[in-house]
Queue: 4 jobs
Job 1
Amino acid sequence: MAHFRTLTAAIALSLMAGSALAAPVLRGDIIVINPVVTAGDMFEDAGALADTPIFGAPAPGTSGLVDLGAIKAAAARIGINTFGNNGLDRVRVSRAAILVDETFLKDMIFADLKARGIIGQGMHADIMLSPGFSPVQVAADAEPARLDNLRYHPSRNDFSARFTLSGMSRPLDVSGNIMMSVDAPHLAATLAAGTVLMPEHIVMRPIPLRDADSLGIVPVEKLVGMALRRQSRDGVVLRAADITEPLAVTKNELVTIVFRQGPMTLTVKGQAVTSAAKGSPLQVINLMSKRIISATAIAPGTVQVTSAPLALAGL
């Protein structure tokens, strides 16, 4: 019987020791993200009460000190009557926050315009908020801000937007201007008339979107391989009116005159009277007959005549 009482006492002491080990322990300074502080935020080993709120959290981006007496009273209200305090007489509680500033809002506006197809490839938007906006700290949750409405007027370049901010009961209304621009090809150096454009001759720089259509901007892929109509200076915007097909034959150039009729091909030496791009007509002199004839430039230094067989002798 004495042995049984000893065993029972040992078990009781073991359970008491286990309970003591499992008692909640006050944490040091804590940071929360929610509008309430739970038992699990405040104590280690809060057990089944971990998700139970004990008091409200400070505003996002702020902190406050809670003394030990207030913690004991709040804990007792939810059933935690004893806990280890780690020698602390107060705890600093901070509320995590995200700063919503001009950059944050501009990025959201830009993303919305891009998703709607208003901002396309190679386009830029310089977004300016009207004076009066001040950055604000909001709750650090998965969606700190949401763009509820955006009205953009391209003809006036102005906009208005309404945002919902996490933890804020009132919406945030902002307005401002958006200056759209688009990358356009510019000459990277001063080049002479007739220069055939290569990729290294072209640099992309933004111009106001409203000017792009009126200037007749040409995509880069349609510029490479084309020739300048006139001498052009460094930095000029390249327009459709500035380029032409490169010359296959230039005035006074010695050329090969080709005549093809079925399987027969005849060639003779000539000299160009006029210049022409590939596929364009020109006048050439047959150096043997000294006659001026009409031909078509078909390749650099080569022209073709399409005279009927009876006129062949006239070459």
Job 2
Amino acid sequence: MFPDFEAIKVGDTRTLTRAIGEADVRRFVEMTGDDNPLHVDRAYAEATSFRDIVVHGMLGASFISTVIGTQLPGPGALWVAQNLEFLLPVRLGDTLKITCTVTAKHERDRLLELDTTIVNQSGQTVLSGSGKVKVLEGRAAQPAAPRLERRRVALVTGGGGGIGRAICQRLARDGLDVVVAFNGRADRAEAVVAEIAALDGPSRAVALQADLGANGGAASLAKRALQAFGGIDVLINNASPVIGAKAFADLDWTDVQAHLDVQVKAAFELAQACLPAMIAQRSGRIVNITSQVTEGAPTPTWTAYAMAKSALATMSRYLAAEVGPSGVTVNCVAPGMTETALIGDIPEKAQLIAARQTPMRRLAAPADIASAVAYLASDEAGFITGHTLSVNGGMVMR
């Protein structure tokens, strides 16, 4: 047990009485190697002005440590400073009374100042001084997340697309219930739900339509997801408009705003909707899908898309720092060029060149991204937060 720092008061005093014999001196010499004849050779000592053996001064002083470590403040105390004045010699056979008294207390540093004195059996002070002792704290036990009475639930935006579909399928195989959020193409989202239903496992899925770029779209989605499964434990912000490549001269702010609304504002609002329950249960995972474009060489005409991805990455780091103490992690997965409809407007030749320039000599597959997301959503990644996991085959290395 560590000392109760709050219970220690200025004026508290503890004492120890110890008789000093030849065996104590022998052990001290064996331990320190200090075989000064003044301490061990009676004939030598009698020829000095002391006329007899003088016990090592630090042997007596060492019992101050005994008082500190066993009584005041006790186990867990760290003796950090001491000044000593040796006033009289200690002789063999002396009985010493060692006293420590608290003279000051520093709450912020958990530090005590002590008056330290040693007197002999005749009441003579043989040593006086003052010391400082730090009172250590035991490592606080991390509160365990309460056990859920239901399966974990993942909300995946953009769940009907290539990467989103792979994420939904992988999380379902890992035993999570899945909300497949989509905007257009209800048929693709329903196909994902059917694929999950056909898996050999207990996971369930539901498709929910939401226009994340519209006011209230994210809040409405979160509310309906909660109603569907009773909770949201994993939030995957994957939705993105088409890249919409434009030269900067042709770019309008509405193009930028469209990306910011879906990729940043919606992620912001969904996190705000999901975090209260995650914090209350001391567990939760938020994984935001960013992009290699925020780290590698800029791709001309992708300005609006890259601006939103960069903002999402920055928000993720700041949010991770804020909610970390509550047991919630926030991370990013940054895919390289991935074989999905999102790169459909990129000429095939450019895709082949990109694959050849990648150390792995291929583009990413949606399953590659889903595997990274599944890891960050798992219990095994419980001590990873504020991190961006790049899944680009080595195209960009840091």
Job 3
Amino acid sequence: MSNRITELFNIKYPIVQAGMVWCSGWRLASAVSNAGGLGIIGAGSMYPAVLRKHIQKCKLATERPFAVNVPLLYPDVQEIMKIIVEEKVRIVFTSAGNPATWTEYLKKNGITVAHVIANSKFALKAEACGVDAVVAEGFEAGGHNGREETTTMCLVPMICDRVKIPVIAAGGIGSGRAMLAAMALGADAVQIGSAFAVAEESSAHPNFKNSIVGAAEGDTRLRMKKLVPVRLLKNEFADAVGQAEAQGASTEVLVQLLGRARAKLGMFEGDMEQGELEIGQVSAMLDQIRPAAEILSAIWKEFLTEKERISEMRF
């Protein structure tokens, strides 16, 4: 398949792995890239020196393109950008911040830039800043979400109607059927997080992976809306946040409740009760841990099967 995204990133399939904190190290990124998608190293959970090592290991593990995701509001972003340029990373996905801050710098250094957005206003702003593509991330997604709580089904066509650059759909996509639906809405590709979080190569703790594949419908909720909205798997910490929010807790109280390294505690160290467990609604559809290449292949095959089924329909 060839379209604007496969040509932009020089990849075989229009499938992009999300840059998930504590899940997206070099092993997962290289595995996805080797399978024909675009693997992404998630810099959000890495100190600069750690990121450099992951980039170097990824370059040794794959000859295919890969990217680095950089949350712009995180500390050390200046050092992270310097490392990305020094290590000659060719693709960067920026998120959680103003794309005007770093897009020009990255583009001047020959780097292709995609920016993650959750509403039309920021899609247009990102396009005006010169990004090459946007990721339209709907309410169903794990990790950070938009305050508007717009679902992927509504968000993607709105963004596609407003920008001229390629659009990558994200949020609630973990199957070939969902991928086909996103493409029908106008997307050029899909970004998949939760389904790759449970890949064998994911750096997530086995406890977290097992909790994901054991999740049922309704086991995630959008929390921390006064801070940065994040979708959490149910546990003692998520319940405490929900109770605090129901009682009208202030931003300061929520910050204190969140504390430090809460996501690392759960997703990387495996504390399933006190950790912050970021995952999407599609977790209820995931039922096994398997290699990333197998996950990508299954999604692509189902996409082609469903595409053929619909093409044979009589109207």
Job 4
Amino acid sequence: MNDPAVTINNDEKLVESHTTSNADELVPKAYLIPFILITLCFPLWGFANDITNPLVNAFSKVLQMSVAEGTWVQVAFYGGYGAMAIPAALFIKKFSYKAGLIVGLGFYALGAFLFIPAAGAQAFAPFLFAFFVMTCGLSFLETSANPYILSMGPASTATQRLNLAQAFNPVGSLLGMFVATQFIIQKLNPTTDAERRALVADGSDGALEQLSAITANDLEVIRNPYLAIGIVVFIMLLVIAFKKMPRTEEKSESLDIRGTFKRLLANQNYREGVIAQVFYVGAQIMCWTFIIHYGTEVFVKMGMAEQAAEAKSQMLNIYAMIIFCLSRFVCTALLKFINPGKLLMVLAAGGIFFSAGTIFLEGVIGVYSLVGISACMSLMFPTIYGIALTGTGEDAKLGAAGLIMAIVGGTFLPMAQASIIDMKVVFDGFSATKASFILPLICFVVIAIYGKRSQRHIPK
């Protein structure tokens, strides 16, 4: 990856000249303002990801579904990444990173605004469609922003630069989780699952009208934060659309798709990185989605009322995100001194340790082990991303699509875990919820292996 000095003119072309900047400079001055603007996009998809995770439990309650049925939220949400990643990469390769950002922000805002008719319909399917449209936009956004950040400076600092930008992603995640807890979960009608089922069983016009009113109110509560973020995203779209941005790549008139995919598939480091990313995203979504189920189960066994246990578990979810956010900044600093692959391996080993604690330790210690996993996950996504794209050159545009498609790990793995939890049986002394965390443990084993094997591919 070249390290050109950049001049931005009115038609967004890149003018390259020799530079005297330090070869290890993190963000060259010519890229600083564009870097800041693109970095501001990272909290936007962090918000979308983590306001959504608690909604599995919310939709299950509001629409009286099983845990597995509620997990269709994750299938629709993360399925959009898989469906749109390659089209997004082809679009970016044909046009530019900036064009990809604008399209991504547009779909994001549209999906958020689709929550208005979805709430009015009082049905699950329109919400799933809104989630899908929104994440088609997120797929464009991430496929554009991540490699764009990597290209804004020398290759020697690319992974560290991406980690710096990604460090602001959990800020949005934390805000999303806080909004989900305080402005959605806490504002849902306090009618319990049993009371809602009783209204359905009653079947009288009065009972069904009462249930319909409760459901309509709850769905409006879910809708409102998405309207707010839709407005914010649309404003960000306008800012980027009117701001002159550097072109760090040449416009491609011809797309050598077959050749690009052939080279990527032959690249062992990239191929294994995509696999590792599938398992990482699956582990992240499982640990953050089902911490509420795990904590509620533990605290109820300790004698706490169910509603209080659920509220406490929600707060622990926020604490996990705070730990994740702080760990991201700490680990980004450590990358100055430690090989990214080695640090990835160490963090994955920590994930294995805490996952084992989640399964085998009883009471509040098991809950704390689950919270502790977040410290280990903090650096994984951008580090795997940066390592996997090392040395791919112009193929990074389509290579980025494969790594974004890997986010589909957030669909089938949480669904598999939800299916285990729904069994509500005891596995050799372990509850179904505890036993289900064997899946994140396996994910961290895969990531640790990739961290070990990838170390030889990273520039010194």
